[in-house]
């Protein structure tokens, strides 16, 4: 059986691609990933077996960007807390005290302005948000103007000015714990941190402290490390945190498109053609 | 007046002979009787425009939260029983979906502006059609008959004011005209929807889900079926609940009161 396997479609990081598996599949030609992130793969190891790799960068953009905006809005307006108040038995609350923060006209700082980050900017523009962004490279002027985004060469400048900080980077050795104690302390105490990248991009312990001591107002995380978190983790208990179960691409449409992209990549690899979204070890 | 308190009735008005003005917070005045106030020579004001963007923002928040099952997702993420996140757990995309806005006033229009950026197709039903420029700016198509909007929409958002004409505007019949995959979002007033019909429709999968910032009454009795349905998100009437907007509302109300007391023209007077 193992000699017949030529392609693997990796769905949610399973199966685990390690030395043992690669050795047992001598005819494996390609691994196609369901999604854009490749941080769970040892690219060099896979390449050393002569196996090609591909991700699905295009299919994920809309649904992930929508998740980012959905979390931003839910956190700003305290939607989850509000829901619990609305349905809970016999809980007295003072309506006049229950306030959120404005989204329209607020400043959004996007860290990582790739496909997903740019789509978020398009959405945020419709909410008349003031958009700042930090990226490895600056985008073209036209692209900036189309969304009214201002480039912040230094991430610190973005952190100091933003009411909402949206993290949309891929996980690499450079972005590991990109947002730590120092970065959170640069943020406004009224600011909200939203993470739709990977849990490891944020220093989670520093985040717990920052949220508990009012260094930042709130956080909304579609990703954590690990995901799911241990059931006794403090983040699960904080009122000013919304956590969602990595639902960034979990829509009918996105999963369908991701599978289409993966199949295209697999067929190309098996036919010796250029692979549309090939990922090379850097 | 905040949150409909105190109740303005004959008894109260008779006991306050020097009352000159009632300044009501928010834009809705369905809880007041303008004719009654007029008989007592008492002026009335509201705060119409300051609430618009926050309410539109909340409408979008509810639409995103409902379509992506955010509240259910949160519960899964924090539940003590969760060991892993299931792979077959899915929500619905906004891009390419059709949003039907019932009531295209200031708030409805702002919702359209926001929804356009999410690549939604926008239909609207209104007492009057908006002009061509306004329509094309948000790509909105007018549905003279509400039935046409209900048939085609994946999301139906209610942003009308509550009047005798809009009372129970969405009832059993309207819900049955909606797609079984559709979601109802209400940011108007609870009474615009026939709540009992809504419960039944959700129960029998006549529509997929609902997201309500408003109910009747507020809050609902603690044993009400709407509070228990998995496919319902309810928020405690927080459409205008941000620090900035509440401050602006208060400023507006103060201005109206000061004008009312000094006999000057009243900003935001309701006639």
TrEMBL record, chain A:
<dbReference type="GO" id="GO:0016618">
    <property type="term" value="F:hydroxypyruvate reductase [NAD(P)H] activity"/>
</dbReference>
<comment type="similarity">
    <text>Belongs to the D-isomer specific 2-hydroxyacid dehydrogenase family.</text>
</comment>
<dbReference type="Pfam" id="PF00389">
    <property type="entry name" value="2-Hacid_dh"/>
</dbReference>
<dbReference type="GO" id="GO:0051287">
    <property type="term" value="F:NAD binding"/>
</dbReference>
<dbReference type="InterPro" id="IPR006140">
    <property type="entry name" value="D-isomer_DH_NAD-bd"/>
</dbReference>
<keyword id="KW-0560">Oxidoreductase</keyword>
<dbReference type="InterPro" id="IPR036291">
    <property type="entry name" value="NAD(P)-bd_dom_sf"/>
</dbReference>
<dbReference type="InterPro" id="IPR050223">
    <property type="entry name" value="D-isomer_2-hydroxyacid_DH"/>
</dbReference>
<feature type="domain" description="D-isomer specific 2-hydroxyacid dehydrogenase NAD-binding">
    <location>
        <begin position="69"/>
        <end position="248"/>
    </location>
</feature>
<dbReference type="Pfam" id="PF02826">
    <property type="entry name" value="2-Hacid_dh_C"/>
</dbReference>
<feature type="domain" description="D-isomer specific 2-hydroxyacid dehydrogenase catalytic">
    <location>
        <begin position="5"/>
        <end position="279"/>
    </location>
</feature>
<protein>
    <recommendedName>
        <fullName>Glyoxylate reductase/hydroxypyruvate reductase</fullName>
    </recommendedName>
</protein>
<dbReference type="GO" id="GO:0030267">
    <property type="term" value="F:glyoxylate reductase (NADPH) activity"/>
</dbReference>
<dbReference type="GO" id="GO:0005829">
    <property type="term" value="C:cytosol"/>
</dbReference>
<dbReference type="InterPro" id="IPR029752">
    <property type="entry name" value="D-isomer_DH_CS1"/>
</dbReference>
<dbReference type="InterPro" id="IPR006139">
    <property type="entry name" value="D-isomer_2_OHA_DH_cat_dom"/>
</dbReference>
Automatic annotation (TrEMBL), chain B:
<dbReference type="Pfam" id="PF00389">
    <property type="entry name" value="2-Hacid_dh"/>
</dbReference>
<dbReference type="InterPro" id="IPR006139">
    <property type="entry name" value="D-isomer_2_OHA_DH_cat_dom"/>
</dbReference>
<dbReference type="Pfam" id="PF02826">
    <property type="entry name" value="2-Hacid_dh_C"/>
</dbReference>
<feature type="domain" description="D-isomer specific 2-hydroxyacid dehydrogenase NAD-binding">
    <location>
        <begin position="60"/>
        <end position="239"/>
    </location>
</feature>
<dbReference type="InterPro" id="IPR050223">
    <property type="entry name" value="D-isomer_2-hydroxyacid_DH"/>
</dbReference>
<keyword id="KW-0560">Oxidoreductase</keyword>
<dbReference type="GO" id="GO:0051287">
    <property type="term" value="F:NAD binding"/>
</dbReference>
<dbReference type="GO" id="GO:0016618">
    <property type="term" value="F:hydroxypyruvate reductase [NAD(P)H] activity"/>
</dbReference>
<feature type="domain" description="D-isomer specific 2-hydroxyacid dehydrogenase catalytic">
    <location>
        <begin position="3"/>
        <end position="270"/>
    </location>
</feature>
<dbReference type="GO" id="GO:0030267">
    <property type="term" value="F:glyoxylate reductase (NADPH) activity"/>
</dbReference>
<dbReference type="InterPro" id="IPR006140">
    <property type="entry name" value="D-isomer_DH_NAD-bd"/>
</dbReference>
<dbReference type="InterPro" id="IPR036291">
    <property type="entry name" value="NAD(P)-bd_dom_sf"/>
</dbReference>
<dbReference type="GO" id="GO:0005829">
    <property type="term" value="C:cytosol"/>
</dbReference>
<protein>
    <recommendedName>
        <fullName>Glyoxylate reductase/hydroxypyruvate reductase</fullName>
    </recommendedName>
</protein>
<comment type="similarity">
    <text>Belongs to the D-isomer specific 2-hydroxyacid dehydrogenase family.</text>
</comment>
